[in-house]
Amino acid sequence: MENATKALIMAGGLLIAILVLGLLVVGYRNISDYQQSATNLKKDQQLSTFNNGFTQYVRDDLVGTDVISLVNKVFDYNQKTGGVGEIDYSYKITLKINMHNFKDKYLTNYITQSSYTINQDSTDSDGFLKLLKEMRKLEDDYGRKELRELYSNIESLKTYYDEGDTTNGLSIKDVIGKNIPALETQFSSGDFTSLEKHTEYTEFKSSTFAIKNEPTYHDANGQIKSMVVDFVK
User: If residue 118 lies in a helix (H) or strand (E), which one and from where to where?
Assistant: First the structure.
């Protein structure tokens, strides 16, 4: 009888030990699953935040200034190396801007290509980034408002500087109330391209664009891969 009791106690203790061990294993697995879920959630949040920086432009009511911001964002990203957290900078982005009938609508001389591409290697083979940089420098040097006023009087300026007719023409000072020696030198040589380029740049900034199709994503980690912007009007 005594031996049977001891055997029962031992069996009970073993069963309790097995139950405790089982609970510990289940608990460990639950903790591991929770930690993995938390890690996956953090990765997803990082990737979502990164992609949202670009997909916020997936709209049909973009204006040119939005496109310029996106161009700069893609270009700056493509120049980065390494990575941060789940974001791998080796996965680059291509941005294509389809200009469609922009040239025909505005009779442009400088923004003339049917499309422009910001490449994954950050090259500016189309010269689009160079043009944007040049226009920003013009505005910094001479003022946005001043350039607009000068272009609105470009024929009078040509009469004054190109034809030498000071009676019927207008000087830079006549138009905006101050001299700009660098522009006066250009105008005197018959070069009014600064005004023409800036006007096309202004038309681009105020035009309507749209991203009609969803961006593509890199298969390896889901980072955004390419986007296409279309000129609308």
Answer: strand 115-118
How many domains, the chain? 2
Summarised one tens digit per residue, pLDDT across range 33-48 is 555 554 555 677 889 9
Domain extent for 48: 1-55
CA neighbor of 200 nearest in space, from 123, 128, 95 = 128
Q: What tokens appear for 224 in the block?
A: 């955004």
Count CB-CB contacts under 10 A for residue 91.
18
Per the CB < 8 A criterion, the answer to whether 64 and 204 are in contact is: yes
Q: What is the pLDDT of residues 55-70, one digit of tens each?
A: 999 999 999 999 999 9
Instruction: Give how far Cα 10 sits from Cα of 15, 16, 23, Å.
Output: 9, 10, 20
Residues 46 and 64 reside in one and the same domain: no
